[in-house]
């Protein structure tokens, strides 16, 4: 009976914290309708888990089960959010261009190759310490971020890549095309 109680406490707390971690990420990403719905389930599990844990706090095994469930729950919540991969990422890719240097020849074609792969790419010319640069801005769903990173490195191994999560998107080719391509959303 003691072991079953410890396992129950562990499972309930891991479940509660998993949902809590996921709900926190929903709030940060601005999901104002889904986050409160998830919070209701989260709090229901929390009250049950806490009541059981507090009724049986006299056992070090139960306290340890509660604590370990907390850590495991955070890990599971992060895994869930990474699998769902809500939102978008914006890649800022900077590459050196030098027509005289064959090492940088592939960098001139990076934008077109990425467009051929289905990404929207905005290109700006810039000047760096050691010469001309192209700065590419690429919006992609978070689900595609690892694949895009690999594709950029494959095409231009010397690229400087910075990835950011935009808080809001509005208008333009990016949001319309990316939503349509990856989420089936039609903006008409």
TrEMBL record:
GO terms under cellular component: plasma membrane
Location of the protein in the cell: Cell membrane
Membrane-related topology note: Multi-pass membrane protein
Short name of any one Pfam family annotated for the protein: DUF2179
- InterPro entries, per this entry? DUF2179, DUF5698, UPF0316
Q: Where is the DUF5698 domain?
A: 21-78
Q: Could you tell me which residue ranges the DUF2179 domain spans?
A: 119-171
Which positions, given as ranges, span the membrane? 6-26, 33-54, 60-80
UniProt keyword annotations, A-Z: Cell membrane, Membrane, Transmembrane, Transmembrane helix
Similarity remark: Belongs to the UPF0316 family.
Q: Which HAMAP family match?
A: UPF0316
> What protein name does the entry list?
UPF0316 protein FD41_GL001729
Q: Which organism is it from?
A: Lentilactobacillus farraginis DSM 18382 = JCM 14108
